[in-house]
Amino acid sequence: MLRLLPLPIFIGIYLFSYWRCKKNITASDEQLKACIDWAYLKNLPLPEKPSFIEFYIVYVSSFFKFPFGIIIQTLPFSKKVRYYEREMKLIFDKWNLEKIKKLKN
Q: What are the pLDDT digits (tens) for 41-90?
């Protein structure tokens, strides 16, 4: 009985991290919707969005730095997730800059 006690704790941690990651990605997608529409109008190249599984593995690996986090950060899909986040941040910054310029004029 005592040997099975950690199992519900691990399942709870897994479900909580899954829920948080899903919530963060949904909030990010909602925030970026107008920005992505603007990028389509401007014919800006949009990076390919990684799958939820790739986002989730990178999200969880950020909590476990050594040794699993370091190994996962060197994998190709992790670089794909970081590239997507970096490019979307640049597009979001361009969108905000143009929005601010319109407000000033």
A: 999 999 999 999 999 998 888 777 777 778 888 889 999 999 999 999 99
**What tokens were used for 9?**
């704790």
Kind and range of the H or E run holding 38: helix 6-41
Structure-token match 């969005």, residue found: 49
Place of tokens 């004029």: 105
Question: Residue 14's CB: how many other CB atoms inside 10 A?
Answer: 11
Amino acid of residue 12: G
Tokens of 42: 């401007």
Task: Locate the domains of the chain by residue range.
Answer: 2-104
What confidence tens digit (pLDDT) does each residue in 13-42 have? Answer: 889 989 999 999 999 999 999 999 999 999
